[in-house]
Specification:
The complex is a heterodimer of chains A (358) and B (690).
Chain A lengths: L1 H35 L1 E5 L10 E6 L5 E5 L9 E5 L4 E10 L4 E6 L11 H5 L9 E6 L12 E12 L2 E3 L2 E2 L5 E5 L12 E4 L4 E5 L3 E3 L4 E3 L1 E4 L3 E6 L2 E6 H10 L19 E3 L11 E4 L4 H4 L7 E5 L2 E2 L3 H9 L6 E8 L2 E8 L11
Antiparallel strand pairs in A: 1-2, 1-4, 2-3, 3-6, 4-5, 5-6, 7-8, 7-12, 8-11, 9-10, 9-14, 11-16, 12-13, 13-16, 14-15, 17-18, 19-20, 21-22, 21-23, 23-24
Chain B lengths: L1 H11 L2 H23 L3 E7 L5 E3 L5 E3 L5 E5 L5 E5 L9 E5 L7 E2 L1 E6 L4 E5 L21 E6 L11 E11 H4 L1 E4 L11 E3 L5 E6 L20 E5 H12 L11 E3 L11 E4 L4 H4 L7 E5 L2 E2 L3 H8 L7 E8 L2 E9 L10 E2 L2 E3 L8 E6 L4 H5 L6 E6 L5 E2 L6 H10 L6 E7 L5 E7 L1 E2 L50 E6 L6 E6 L9 E7 L7 H17 L2 E6 L11 H14 L2 E11 L1 H12 L6 E5 L16 E7 L5 H13 L3 E7 L9 H12 L5
Parallel strand pairs in B: 32-33, 32-34, 34-35, 35-36, 36-37
Antiparallel strand pairs in B: 1-4, 1-6, 2-3, 4-5, 5-9, 6-7, 8-9, 10-11, 10-13, 11-12, 12-15, 13-14, 14-15, 16-17, 18-19, 18-20, 20-21, 22-29, 23-24, 24-25, 25-26, 25-27, 27-28, 30-31, 31-33
Classes of the chains: A alpha+beta (358), B alpha+beta (690).
Chain lengths: 358, 690
C-alpha cells in the first residue's frame, strides 16, 4: 500500500510535468508563429517622453508593414528589424488617420516574408470579453534584431468605445476597441499584435492613452474588423481596416480628407444655469418658449443626465456634444425631475436669426 | 486511494489534448461566470457634488468620481452595494443603470460603512437578480478571482468588463479584506470579484493598510494589488446599513508606548479621554494580554483583532498591571475619539537659556497669561495645578520641560505659576488655559504684527544648570564652533542624495535656528533654483535666525518614498548646526506643498510646522498631544484648488490642529508675496509659543 502510494505520486508528478510542458507549448507555438510576422520599428522620437521605437505587423510577403500612425513614422530614416535579425530601411506609403494606422514598405526587393493574410484574418467575427488573448510588442525596446517580442497574457476586458487623450490631444481613433486587462499599452507597443490563443490576429495594440472619464491609463487594441466614416473628395465614405490594407498593398489607397468639424450645432432653446465650477451639473435654468426644448416638454430645474445614451457630467460636456449635432437631428435625452428620470425626444432646428441689437 | 489514482490518470493521461482543453475550459467557465453575475452588476453615474482633489503617492492631482462606477445588486427589491469611493464628493444625483432595464434609476444613498468603505444605495426596482456568494471559509489563496465592472460603456446589454486574476491573500487591511491580482481600477470599484463558477467572493474597494480614508489605495490601480470586502461580511452588515445608519470602525482608545507595532509588547502609552479604554480603567503602563480570549503579543495582533469591529461592538480584554492580571468583559467600542486641542497659556519663552525656569519673551494679547498678569521679562520659576509644586529640574531646558508639562493639561485647566518679576519679587499667578489659537473651527490663528527681536539668551551649547546633583542631562555632542555659511552643498550620509542649505552669514552656534525645509516644485531642483529661492528668504534668515534646507528630488514629482531622504537631510543638518527642534517647518508650493503635508503627518517627531501654498490635505491624521504640529495654508483665489484648501483648514481645525489660512485675491498657484513672507517668518517665530 505504502509503495503503491509512492509510485502513484511519482507517476502523478511525472505526468503533471508533462502536462505543464504541453500547456507551455500551446502558448509557445502561438507566440513563435506570431513573432515571425512582427517587426521592430525604429524612427523619430526620443524627446518629450516619446519613444523612438515601435512595433509593426507584416501583412505581405513583400514587406508591407501595418503599424500605428504615430510620431515614429515622421522620419526619412525608418528602420525595420524582422524576426530573424535581418534589417531594412522602409518608407511609409499610406496613412489613414481616422483608423490611426499606416502602411510602410521595406525598401529592398524582398519576398517570402512570413505575414498575416489580413483579408482572411479580418473576415473572422469579433472576439468577445473574457476571451484569453496574447499581446505582443516591442514595448520598452527590450528586443532588437532577432530577439523575440514581449508576450503578455490577459483577457479582453471589454469591447467598448475608445475615449482617450494624451495630454490635450484627442485620440485619433473614435470607434469601439478591445480593452485589455493586461498592461499592454507601453512605450513602443503601439502597432503590436493582439492575438488569440491560436495565433489569430484580433487587433492592433494602441497608443498610451488616458481614459478621460476616469483619468486612468488604458490598455486597448483596435480590432482588425474596424471600419470608420471618412470624407474623400467631399463625399462621405466608409473605409475598413481590411480595405485600407488591401488598397495600400495594391498602391491605390486614397487618404481621407480632414473631417470638417461641425462648428455650429442645431438650435434647442435650453438655457443652463451659470457654469461656475469645473464640473457644474447641467441644470436647466430656462426654456425658451416654443423652442424645440419647450416642445419636448423640458422644464426649468430639470437636470440633464444623458443625451443619446451619453452621460453628461457637466455643462461643458453638454455644450461640446450639442455643437456636433446639426439642425434637423433628433436627440433623445434623459432628465432628472423630482427624483424620477424622464425620457424626451427633441428635434433640433436651425439657429434663429439674431435680432439686430441697438 | 483508488479514487485518487483514477482521478489523477483521468486528469493527466491525454496530456497533449488536455492542456488546450484546460485553457478552453477555463475560458468557457470565465465567460459563464460573467454571464451568471453580469445581470447583477450595475453601472453607477454621479453628477455634481464638490470638486474633490486627491494626491496619489505619485503626487498627481486627480479629480475623483467623475466617470461611471460599478455596483452589485444585493436584494431583489433594489438595494445596491458599492464602494464609498464613488460617492466621496457628495454628488447631487446618483443614477443606477441596471442591465436589461431600459431607463436608469435615480438612487438614494442609504448608509455608508466607513470601516469597510462601502455605500448602500436603493433604487425603486423589483425582481432584480441577486448573485450567490462564496462563504468566507471557502475562499483560499490561488483561487480564480474574476473582477467585473460596468463603466466603460453605456451599452448595458453588453457583458460586464472583466479582468482575470487569482486571490492573492486573505485577511488583509487588518483582517477586513481579501486581496486579488486581477487588474483593479476605478472601473471596478464597487464591483464584484467572482470565483470560476460565478459566486461573488467580495466587493472591490480601494484600500490600503496604511490609510483609512475612501481614497487610500487608489494609487495602486492596475498594479495587480486590489482589495475586496468578503461578500459574507457584506451580507452580515447589510441589515444594519438598511436601517440607514452609517457604520464606523470600533475603537478602543489607546496609543501604544512605542510606534513599533510589530516588535514591542503592547504596553499602553496613552489612554484617550471618553473612550472604551478609559471606561475600562486602563492606564498608561498596562500591558494588553488578550482580546476576545485570543492572546496578543504585539500591537499588530490587536489591530488584526479589532480591525473588523464596528462602533458599539463589544469585546473582552485581559491586561496586566504590575504583576496582576485583570479582565474586562462586554467592553463597548467607540466610533470616534475625542480630539483634544493643545493648551495655550499665551507666552513666548526666551530660547537658549541654560538656567532653571522660563523667561517670558512676549505675552499674547487677551491670552490667559495676560489676564493672569504675566509680563514680558518675568521668569517662571515654579508651576503646578492646585499649588506650585513643580520645580524645574535642569534635565532638559526649562522651555522644553514647561511645554511637556503643559501638553498634559487640557484647555480649561487652571494652573498656578510662581513668577519672579524684573524687580526681584516673586508672585504666584493663576491662569486658566485656553485652546491653542487657530485650533477651533472657524477661528484662525492671527500672528502678532510685531514680536520682540530679542529671542535668545545665546547659550544654546552651555551645560544646563540643575538643582540636583543626581540629575545628569542627556549628553549630546554640540555642533561645532565653525560651520559653513552661505549656500552649502551636501549629501545625505549614505551619499545617495544631494541637498542644499542656506545658512545666514550671521550664524551663531550658540543660538538655536529655525529650520525651513523647502520642498521645491517639480523640476525646480537645480542649484540656481534653490539659490533664487534662498534670495527671497535672505533677510528673514538673518533677522529671524533661520536656516533653509532644500532636499533635491530627481523625479518628475515628489514621491512619498522620498521622505526618507528628506528626513536623512534634516538629521544631518541637526548634527552640524544648532537647530531649534520646536521650529522645524516643512514648506512647499503645489506638489511640494503636498509633500510638506505628507512629511508633517508622517514624521511627527521631527516636523513642528507645515507651511504650504496651493496644497490640499488628503490624508488627515489626528492631533497628538505629545507632538505638536501647526499649519500655515495659503491659497490664491484663482487657484482651482482654492475650495479644497479652504476645506483643508476646516478639516485640520476639526482635528484641533492650529491653522492660519490666507486666501490671496487675484492670484493663482504662485509663491507667497513679500507681505505673506513676512507673516510666515513671524509664524515660524511663534511656533514655540506656550
Amino acid at each position: 500500500m505504502r509503495n503503491r502510494r509512492v509510485l502513484v505520486i511519482a507517476l502523478a508528478t511525472l505526468l503533471a510535468g508533462m502536462a505543464t510542458a504541453h500547456a507551455q507549448q500551446s502558448f509557445t507555438a502561438t507566440a513563435n508563429e506570431v513573432n515571425k510576422k512582427m517587426v521592430k520599428l525604429f524612427g523619430a522620437g526620443g524627446f518629450k517622453g516619446l519613444a523612438s521605437y515601435g512595433t509593426g505587423i507584416m501583412v505581405s510577403a513583400k514587406g508591407h508593414i501595418l503599424t500605428c500612425n504615430n510620431h515614429i513614422l515622421s522620419t526619412s530614416d525608418l528602420r525595420v528589424h524582422v524576426y530573424d535579425g535581418r534589417f531594412y530601411r522602409a518608407k511609409v506609403i499610406f496613412r489613414e488617420p481616422e483608423l490611426d494606422v499606416a502602411v510602410a514598405k521595406i525598401d529592398d526587393d524582398v519576398d517570402l516574408l512570413p505575414h498575416f493574410d489580413f483579408e482572411k484574418e479580418a473576415a473572422r467575427p469579433l472576439a468577445e470579453p473574457g476571451d484569453w488573448v496574447l499581446a505582443m510588442s516591442n514595448c520598452f525596446q527590450i528586443a532588437t534584431r532577432d530577439e523575440p517580442m514581449t508576450v503578455q497574457r490577459g483577457v479582453i476586458l471589454a469591447y467598448a468605445e475608445l475615449r482617450g487623450r494624451r495630454g490635450i490631444f484627442d485620440a485619433a481613433f473614435h470607434g469601439d476597441v478591445y480593452f485589455l486587462d493586461a498592461i499592454a499599452c507601453n512605450p513602443g507597443a503601439a502597432g503590436g499584435v493582439l492575438a488569440n490563443r491560436k495565433g489569430d490576429l484580433l487587433g492592433i495594440l494602441g497608443r498610451e492613452l488616458k481614459n478621460t472619464l476616469t483619468d486612468t491609463w488604458i490598455n486597448y487594441a483596435i480590432p482588425i474588423q474596424a471600419a470608420v466614416d471618412i470624407q474623400r473628395e467631399e463625399k462621405a465614405e466608409k473605409v475598413s481596416m481590411a480595405s485600407f490594407v488591401r488598397e495600400a498593398i495594391a498602391g491605390t489607397y486614397k487618404q481621407s480628407e480632414k473631417r470638417k468639424k461641425e462648428d455650429r450645432g442645431g438650435y434647442h432653446g435650453i438655457v443652463l444655469v451659470p457654469n461656475v465650477i469645473g464640473a457644474t451639473p447641467p441644470y436647466i435654468e430656462e426654456v425658451v418658449p416654443s423652442s424645440p426644448a419647450a416642445q419636448a416638454g423640458l422644464r426649468p430645474d430639470d437636470l440633464i443626465v444623458y443625451v443619446d445614451g451619453e452621460i453628461i457630467p457637466s455643462i461643458k460636456m453638454f455644450r461640446e456634444l450639442m455643437r456636433q449635432i446639426g439642425p434637423g437631428a433628433e436627440v433623445r435625452m434623459e432628465v432628472q425631475r423630482a427624483n424620477r428620470l424622464h425620457s424626451v425626444k427633441m428635434k433640433l432646428t436651425e439657429q434663429p436669426k439674431v435680432q439686430a441689437s441697438k | 486511494m483508488r479514487r485518487f489514482l483514477l482521478a489523477t490518470l483521468m486528469l493527466l493521461l491525454p496530456a497533449t489534448i488536455r492542456a488546450q482543453d484546460l485553457n478552453d475550459e477555463l475560458e468557457k467557465m470565465t465567460k459563464e461566470a460573467m454571464r451568471k453575475v453580469g445581470p447583477s452588476v450595475v453601472q453607477i453615474v454621479t453628477q455634481g457634488g464638490i470638486d474633490m482633489v486627491v494626491t496619489s503617492a505619485k503626487g498627481a492631482v486627480f479629480r475623483k468620481a467623475l466617470g461611471p462606477t460599478t455596483g452589485v445588486v444585493v436584494s431583489t427589491d433594489g438595494f445596491i452595494i458599492s464602494s464609498a469611493f464613488n460617492f466621496i464628493n457628495n454628488p447631487t444625483a446618483i443614477l443606477v443603470a441596471v442591465p436589461g432595464h431600459k431607463e436608469p434609476y435615480v438612487a438614494r444613498k442609504i448608509a455608508t460603512d466607513r470601516s469597510r468603505l462601502l455605500t448602500l444605495l436603493k433604487i425603486d426596482a423589483n425582481n432584480l437578480p441577486v448573485p450567490g456568494y462564496v462563504p468566507k471559509k471557502e475562499i483560499v489563496e490561488g483561487q480564480w478571482s474574476i473582477a467585473l465592472g460596468r463603466t466603460l460603456d453605456a451599452k448595458r446589454e453588453q457583458p460586464p468588463a472583466v479582468s482575470v486574476g487569482v486571490i492573492s491573500a486573505l485577511n488583509r487591511i487588518w483582517s477586513k479584506a481579501i486581496q486579488t491580482d486581477a487588474k483593479i481600477s476605478p472601473i471596478n470599484y464597487g464591483g464584484p470579484i467572482v470565483d470560476i463558477v460565478g459566486r461573488v467572493q467580495g466587493i472591490l474597494v480601494p484600500a490600503s493598510p496604511k490609510g483609512d480614508d475612501e481614497t487610500a489605495g487608489f494609487e495602486w490601480y492596475d498594479s495587480g494589488i486590489g482589495f475586496a470586502i468578503p461578500m459574507e461580511d457584506v451580507q452580515s452588515v447589510l441589515p444594519r446599513l438598511k436601517e440607514g445608519k452609517d457604520l464606523k470602525k470600533g475603537l478602543l482608545g489607546i496609543r501604544m508606548k512605542t510606534g513599533d507595532i510589530y516588535g514591542a509588547v503592547p504596553e499602553i502609552g496613552e489612554v484617550l479621554k471618553d473612550t472604551a479604554a478609559a471606561r475600562a480603567g486602563l492606564k498608561p503602563g498596562d500591558v494588553v494580554l488578550e482580546i476576545d480570549g485570543k492572546p496578543v503579543a504585539r500591537m499588530a495582533e490587536i489591530q488584526h483583532l479589532l480591525g473588523p469591529k464596528y462602533e458599539g461592538d463589544k469585546i473582552a480584554l485581559k491586561y496586566k498591571r504590575d504583576d496582576k492580571t485583570f479582565d474586562v468583559n462586554n467592553l463597548e467600542l467607540v466610533g470616534q475619539l475625542t480630539v483634544l486641542a493643545h493648551p495655550f497659556l499665551g507666552i513666548l519663552p526666551m530660547r537658549d537659556d541654560p538656567k532653571l525656569g522660563v523667561d517670558v519673551r512676549y505675552v499674547f494679547a487677551k491670552s490667559p497669561a495676560e489676564k493672569a498678569g504675566l509680563k514680558a521679562g518675568d521668569r517662571i520659576v515654579k508651576f503646578g495645578l492646585a499649588k506650585t509644586d513643580q520645580d524645574f529640574t535642569g534635565q532638559v531646558p526649562g522651555r522644553q520641560q514647561f511645554t511637556t508639562w503643559l501638553n498634559g493639561q487640557g484647555p480649561g485647566t487652571e494652573i498656578k505659576l510662581d513668577v519672579k518679576r524684573k524687580d526681584g519679587k516673586t508672585e504666584t499667578l493663576t491662569a486658566t488655559l485656553d485652546a491653542m489659537p487657530g485650533s477651533t473651527v472657524g477661528q484662525d490663528y492671527a500672528v502678532p504684527d510685531k514680536l520682540p527681536e530679542e529671542a535668545s539668551h545665546k547659550k544654546a551649547r552651555a551645560p544646563l544648570e540643575t538643582n540636583n546633583k543626581n540629575i545628569k542631562p542627556a549628553k549630546v555632542d554640540p555642533p561645532a564652533d565653525k560651520a559653513e555659511t552661505g549656500l552649502v552643498k551636501r549629501n545625505t550620509p549614505d551619499g545617495e542624495h544631494k541637498f542644499y542649505l542656506w545658512v545666514p552669514e550671521n550664524y551663531d552656534p550658540d543660538i538655536a535656528h529655525g529650520l525651513v525645509v523647502w520642498l521645491h516644485p517639480p523640476g525646480k531642483n537645480k542649484e540656481a533654483d534653490f539659490d533664487s529661492f534662498a534670495d527671497l528668504w535672505l533677510d528673514f534668515c538673518e533677522e529671524n535666525r533661520l536656516i533653509i534646507l532644500g532636499p533635491v528630488s530627481d523625479s518628475e514629482t515628489w514621491l512619498a518614498g522620498e521622505s526618507d531622504m528628506v528626513v536623512a537631510a534634516i538629521h544631518d543638518t541637526l548634527k552640524r548646526y544648532t537647530i531649534d527642534r520646536q521650529r522645524v517647518v516643512a514648506h512647499g508650493l503645489g506638489v511640494g506643498g503636498q509633500m510638506a503635508l505628507y512629511l508633517g503627518f508622517n514624521d511627527r517627531d521631527l516636523i513642528r510646522g507645515v507651511a504650504t501654498t496651493g496644497a490640499v490635505v488628503t490624508a488627515l491624521k489626528d492631533n497628538l498631544l505629545g507632538q505638536r504640529l501647526a499649519f500655515y495654508l495659503a491659497a490664491g483665489d484663482l487657484d482651482p484648488l482654492v475650495k479644497g484648501i479652504a476645506e483643508s483648514r476646516t478639516q485640520l481645525q476639526s482635528k484641533r490642529f492650529s491653522v492660519l489660512y490666507r486666501e490671496v485675491k487675484n492670484r493663482g498657484r504662485e509663491y507667497l508675496d513679500a507681505e505673506q513672507l513676512r507673516e510666515l517668518a513671524r509664524w515660524i517665530d511663534t511656533l514655540d509659543k506656550q
